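I am still learning, so would you mind making up any protein sequence you like and the tokens describing how it folds?
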Amino acid sequence: MMRYVAGFLMAADGTVALVRKQKPAWQAGKLNGIGGKIEEGESSKQAMVREFYEETGCFVAPELWRQFAVLADGSENWRVHFFVCHVAEMLMLRTMEAEEIVVLPIDSVTIDNAIPNVTWLIPMAQTIGRGERAESFQVEEVCA
């Protein structure tokens, strides 16, 4: 099974840090959460911390990341752990790899410029930490 992490760093001013994907081909040019593959022996949270640092040059302590969703296909071929970190002010992020890191107003992330699930994952991530009852979600994709 392929296991991945993706994270949304969200600031109080209504901005979110995302990556403009180059690959895989179906994501090329689209916005997604910042992340990547979980390595052997690594927890999803450890992978989130590592991947965020590798892609942005910014270390965010593990205790600041909260897993809020897991997406999986019905065949257990892949699983993505989604994390959110809420900060008072957006951190200084740099593009460290081939894919560009961008900070945008949350309301500018649309189905036209992001991969489809990002448009509903971001509102889910916003609810975490606002005192709402939901603490996490698990969504399984069932292919017909």
